[in-house]
Amino acid sequence: MYSEEVMDHFNNPRNVGKIEDADAIGEVGNPVCGDIIKLYLKIKDEQIEDIKFKTFGCGAAIATSSMVTELVKGKKLDEALKISNQTVAEALNGLPAPKMHCSNLAADALHKAIKTYRNEEFVEIDHHCEHSNFCHKEIKIELEEESK
What we know:
Oligomer: single chain
Largest sheet: 4 strands, antiparallel
Radius of gyration: 14 Å
Order of helices and strands: HEEEHHHHHHE
């Protein structure tokens, strides 16, 4: 069902955590399946110096979060804005159809963080999942609670 790349990023996620003094934060979620992705960016001279994530969701949500951090770390903001959810899925050697719309939110979180940093409008995309029976989290992990 999942590619080796997806399983690798799920089992060994890169850049997990929170940046305390983040310059930008982007959080998006899907109310149908409950996946939530939060990205933290440290930016200097329009370049992403560091990026971390916290995700509550299925294996695909964790893998896409991990992959987007790998794709954009060290990149200029304009270059990072070219990353799409499709780019992330392709970098993971594909995602099952039921996971494309409900778990692949990572690029949206990235775009939201950058737009917020630049004081630009971010238009939230409706991530309606056509496969809601498949979107329930088969693997649940919560990476460190934000606050107690």
